Amino acid sequence: MTSDRSRQRILIVDDMPEDIKFLGEALRADYDIIIAVSAKKALEIIADSPPDLVLLDIMMPEMNGYEICGRLKEDERTKNIPVIFNTGKGEVEDEMRGLELGAVDYITKPFSIPIVKARVKTHLQLRVSGIQLEKQNQTLRELNNMKNEFIGMAAHDLRNPLGSICGLADFLNESEAILSAQERRDYLRTIESTGMRMLGIVDNLLDISVIESGNLKLEIGKWPLEELCRERIQIFGIQARKKKITLHPSFNKTGDFPFDRNQISQALDNLLSNAIKFSPLGSNVYISTENDGNMVKVSVRDEGPGISENDKARLFGSFQKLSAKPTGG
Question: CA 66, 68, 69, 75: dihedral to nearest 10 degrees?
Answer without folding.
Answer: 140
